[in-house]
Design a protein that fits this description.
mainly alpha; Ribonuclease iii, N-terminal Endonuclease Domain, Chain A; Double Stranded RNA Binding Domain; 2 domains; 3-stranded antiparallel sheet; elongated
């Protein structure tokens, strides 16, 4: 668990809280663990996460109306995002799973990883208080926000497609040109080609994001996007 605490940048005073946060229901049922599963912590973590993100967005994006803030929060705390955060922390390596779940690849299951991220957050909140939880969440959210704003409010791929469609004979293609980093923290680079020529390049933590950034790069070169 010490390695996980290093990844979390937090040392627990009550180690049972962390162990409980990592205990999947399959493990709790098989072992009849007195701690139970991490489901109650997941419930609490979901609420703590929502409050921290909502507070940060409210104070940071003062020009955004309620509807846009709601969309942003939903995107930032969706299963896909939480799973990625959990992989960066390597939480999957420390999960306590039942034999069946282990054999079925539970350590890589998106829903399990996302739930575990929330459960660990709740454990940190109970052990160290709201400021500890806030610092932990914002470590991920601050970096995620700029990219998420682009994805939620700016569909660069669609804009680029609309520009190119003015000439029906032209064709856009997105090609993965590079990927680097460990499995839990990969970075992807994508080129967007107009027919056979590269007109933009983008990098992101997902292929989808890299494609959006490549389209944005192409639009900038065309003088359409600043």
């Amino acid at each position: 668990m010490k390695k996980l605490e290093e990844n979390l940048r937090y040392s627990f005073k009550n180690n049972e809280l962390l162990r409980n946060a990592l205990s999947h229901s399959s493990y709790a049922n098989e072992t009849h663990s007195p701690l139970g599963s991490n489901e109650r912590l997941e419930f609490l973590g979901d609420a703590v996460l929502s409050v921290i993100v909502a507070d940060y967005l409210y104070k940071t994006l003062k020009d955004k109306p309620e509807g846009e803030l709601t969309k942003l929060r939903a995107s930032l705390v969706c299963e896909k995002s939480l799973c990625r955060f959990a992989k960066e922390l390597q939480i999957g390596d420390f999960l306590l799973l039942g034999k069946g779940e282990e054999q079925c690849g539970g350590r890589e299951r998106n829903s399990i990883l996302a739930d575990a991220f929330e459960a660990v957050l709740a454990a940190m909140y109970l052990d160290g208080g709201m400021e500890v939880a806030r610092e932990h969440v914002l470590r991920f959210i601050k970096d995620e926000l700029n990219h998420t704003e682009d994805e939620v409010f700016h569909d660069y791929k669609t804009t680029l497609q609309e520009v190119i469609q003015r000439n029906p004979e032209e064709r856009l293609t997105y090609v993965l040109s590079a990927e680097c980093g460990p499995d839990h923290n990969k970075s992807f680079t994508v080129d967007v080609l107009l027919n056979s020529g590269v007109i933009g390049t983008g990098t992101g933590k997902t292929k989808k994001r890299a494609e959006q950034m490549a389209a944005r790069d192409a639009l900038r070169l065309m003088g359409i996007e600043k």
